[in-house]
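Hey team,

Filing this mostly as a record. A colleague (T.K.) asked me to run one chain through the structure pipeline before their review meeting, and I want the input and output archived in the tracker in case anyone asks later how it was produced. No errors, nothing strange. Just documentation.

Input sequence:
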Amino acid sequence: MNVKNLLLKSAMLTFFLLTAMYSQAQDRIFTYTYQSGVLNKGQREIEIWNTYRTGKSDFFTGFDHRTEFEIGLGNNLQTSFYLNLSTQTSAVDNGGIKSLETEHDISFSNEWKYKLLDAVADPVGLALYGELGIGTKENEFEGKVILDKKINKFTLAANAVYELETEAELENNKAEWEAEHKAELNVGLAYALSPKFQITTEHAFRNVFSEGELEHSGLYSGVGMSYVRDNFWVNFSLMPQVKGFKGNEGKSLNLVEYEKMQYRLLVSFAF
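Output structure:
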């Protein structure tokens, strides 16, 4: 092997190693759209999620918090454990007299993610995702097919999402579990201004089905940023609803099922 070929192969190997190290140190640069990367075996992360939701037909504010412990298991597999806390305050009409009502919910989730193809080494990155959540008021299962690709300074990702949610409801003074199906398409595009800082845009097309019928549909579209340094990264986005397609009550936005604006902040520490 001549010196030129040796240097070329060494440079290519160094590039892929550095790319892999960077992608493992930060397995996502979006706040709603997932990427195919997984942690290396034994690598661990603590992720802190905070989502603030506001704006419905009447007064509404909601705050969701998730604390996630994530660990790489090797062989392109990782798992995560979440503690989820949620609270929301909304205006309620009691016989013509409105009052503010606050609800709280706590739940536990377990996530599994398996990478099939790499976003740099292969023509496209591909991963499968499953998450099971058990709560005080509702239980849910969520599945995702994750596609992504990194080209120079651009990162493109897309997720097809299905969620089955069962929620306790009172009917005729009797509590029953009601099933609801959700389908979602998330798309994210990022541009790296530097190795540490990226600007992002995300789009989420959300749909809710009940008894086989589409009840609610809406489109979110927003912008954000991602910053990574050593074993720490932070992602932020603001996502306004731009169009409601079903369940709008004659308005341009669906403010019955969805909020007018969502803000999300993710902070992570790897160790």
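Quick notes for T.K.: The helical segments are 3-25. The CA atoms of residues 164 and 173 lie 25 Å apart.
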